Amino acid sequence: MESKRQQKMASLLQQELASVLQRDLPHLFGGGLAPSISLVKMTPDLGQARVYLSLLLGNDADARLALVRDSAKEIRQALAKRIRKTARVVPELTFFHDDSAAYAAHMDGVLGQLHIPPAPPAAPDAGEGPGELPAPRPRLFKGE
Fold this sequence. Notes:
By secondary structure, the protein is α+β, with helices and mostly antiparallel strands. Helices cover 40% and strands 14% of the residues. One of its GO terms (molecular function) is ribosomal small subunit binding.
């Protein structure tokens, strides 16, 4: 369970890293679309951040992730310029590929291929037919 401090810092880093990748360092991706940041997890001492990138467009996700990992120092410096008055220490950044969108699409395809027959019609209970009264409920107290 993350503390409120970790959650606040993770939220700040997620917003600022998105701005850094899209506005400050667009040259890293050769004019292509910058990856979106799906999740940031902080260590309790706020010294390290695990950044999960969603690399949806393009089939060269491994190459783009390697490019981001190679540019981690430059990204951290640009991040430091943005959060220098908010955070005491700029955390070390470790980047990971978030493939949850691809997994969700795969599972959607698997579920779409399943053949599930419709449920059989429910048989009426013995005591409650269309014209019959329901069985009386048991009394718990005298005044009921």
